[in-house]
Amino acid sequence: MSKIIIENNTVYDIPIINIYQENAFNAPLVFFIHGYGGDREQALDYGYMLAKKGLYYVSMDCKGHGERKVINEANRFYNVFPSDSGLDTYVHMHEVIEQSAIDIQRLVDYFNSKEEINPHRIGISGYSMGGYASFYIAATNPDIKAAASIAGKPAFTKAWQDSITSTATYEQWSKPLRDVTKEIEKRTEYFRMIDPFDKLSSFSPRPLLIINGDQDTDSNYIYSLELYTKLLPFYEDHPAKLQLRMPFAGHQFTYGMKRGACNWFEKYLV
């Protein structure tokens, strides 16, 4: 096996980390999106595993994270919910997801001209927020040829509405939520606009791996199960290219999950 190179770089204004085999040429490219509050170094071991198999790994600092963290960041929505409810953070996370898709396209355009990369073999992967983003990017970017989402939710609108409904059952939050009904409607419309759930039907027959721990209380597996059920007819002629795995795990990116995602990309991109 060739020497593994790990390097930091900045493409346009996006800090990235690359992991690849020395003298890489025409290698499949896998982008990784980190979780909310993380940074581009979150899954270095995963990147190393992919590089060992001959893939070129790129992870970036998402909007407002890592070296892109700024004070008084400009966002689409201002805070309107009780701070301890977590709802404003949840909305902001989706703004980061939306920007991540834009950033990935910029990086795709950049790497398309590099001889180290095969521009026709590009995959997307991510954990937690990155799992959400992987669904969104797979649904909206035709350059993506394979995807592996870990601990994400593919149903943005339904998950948001469920969060509002469940939060309103708490006595200390029920009245504050009633007072911002119009703001909830604005954010609900935003979630509908970026929701990948229905759009993911068009991803078929490209390979889609969904990994969701069956003990995950942050990203309940029910949303992944509903997507899997919806997509089954679209993969009827290629059943092996759609897989849902629900290991006995919580909200985490375990070694077994990393190995499974790595093998997925080796199978369908290399």
Automatic annotation (TrEMBL):
GO BP annotations, alphabetical order: proteolysis
One matching Pfam family: Peptidase_S9
Database matches in InterPro entries: AB_hydrolase_fold, Peptidase_S9_cat
Span of domain Peptidase S9 prolyl oligopeptidase catalytic: 101-256
Cross-referenced Gene3D superfamilies: alpha/beta hydrolase
Domain of life according to the entry: Bacteria
UniProt GO MF annotations: serine-type peptidase activity
Protein name, entry field: Esterase
